[in-house]
UniProtKB/TrEMBL annotation:
Name of the protein: Deferrochelatase
InterPro entries found in the cross-reference section: Dimeric_a/b-barrel, Dyp_perox_C, Dyp_perox_N, Dyp_peroxidase, EfeB/EfeN, TAT_signal
Entry's Gene Ontology BP terms: iron import into cell
PROSITE patterns noted in UniProt: DYP_PEROXIDASE (PS51404), TAT (PS51318)
Domain named Dyp-type peroxidase C-terminal: residues: 234-416
Compartment annotation: Cell envelope
Keywords, comma-separated and alphabetical: Heme, Iron, Lyase, Membrane, Metal-binding, Oxidoreductase, Peroxidase, Signal, Transmembrane, Transmembrane helix
Enzymatic class: oxidoreductase
Region (Disordered), start-end ranges: 226-253
Cited function: Involved in the recovery of exogenous heme iron. Extracts iron from heme while preserving the protoporphyrin ring intact.
Domain of life: Bacteria
Amino acid sequence: MKEHTPKDETGLFTKKVSRRNMLKTAGVGGIGVVIGASGFGGLLTLSEQRAKGQTKDIVPFYGAYQAGITTEAQDNLYFASLQVTTDKRSDLIQLFKDWTEAAAQMTAGKLIGEASLNKNMPPKDTGEAKELSPSNLTITFGVGPSLFSKEGKDRFGLKSKRPPELKDLPKFPLDALDDEWCGGDICIQACADDLQVAFHAVRNLVRIGRGKTIIHWAQTGFQRTKQADSQKTTPRNLFGFKDGTVNPDTNDNNEMNEHVWVRAGDGPDWLVGGSYMVVRRIQMYIEVWDRTILKEQENTFGRHRDSGAPLGMKNEFDTVDLEAKDPSGNRIIPEDSHMSLSRGDGKAKILRRSYSYADGMDPKTGSFNAGLLFICFQRNPSKQFIPIQERLAKNDKLNEYIVHRGSAMFACLPGAKKGGYIGDSLFG
């Protein structure tokens, strides 16, 4: 008699799977197993999980606000600043429509378009993210002041819509800006827990924009991974200090409305629900820093390196007292420390979302070409980032160890609704 193959509750024939083999399938790098209250359930491929909405690493593209601003920072960044080469408004509108569709597909973990069997044509998707998880991919779009007008020319009938806040940042003292790292008509910020997924997103969006846009500059970035830091502590920069301790609470709607989101009455209505993004490419002289004694390093930042606590305190989030003095009458936190100057009176807050970069060797010096791609979001740059940076540029002790090479500002558009497209409030 032939051995009978048992049926499951669906009536389909199933192959008997041992517990050991099941555990192997569920191991690191395995395809995903759906586990119910009764234990192991049926095996689902990654594509099947996506279809059933069971993946946990998808950040929805559509919404009132763009993702990638208040989203918990992912492990990796790929940032691109683009120049628009077309002079047709209709081309630009269609580009944003195409980008919206593609971004929604990629953030859901899908390839762009349907697979084509025509081997005499290039595939619609470049393919390097096939079989990879969405990895919490977010794609954030912004527009620069030069998209509205350039050399006095109203490029796309948008000049009258440029918000007064959206303009090139001033050149601050000690800036050593390179044109190749400054400005841009449009920016794309792709963040993901996998760098290949982030690069795939920008690569395909740039490909869609071919003939209408070109890359002006681009930068990869990284933080400590979630796997390496399961406690989700404040990230550290390449100087070894925590970066972003005093960020506003992204879960507090009142704080976000006060400090991050553009609101009615702030400027043109088309930007309500958006935010201003400032990007600064900061090169760090890490070899010089590595020869600096710990006490001097801590006085430079105004914090203890190990704990991140303000000098004289024990814990990272202890209340800062800039007036506290030691027995000799000297301020415990130096007045020219980075923390003291960036804090000011404590009223102006920005949402930092920065990433470190390491681009090999600086050919001019033979040292590491490494630093910080400083990114921050705010409601009013003239009241937030600019006065903060003016104080830092004049007196910050950290200036001995860094130099600003790149600078740009973008207006990050409001979120898109299904059926609409990113930027429809601007072009409507």
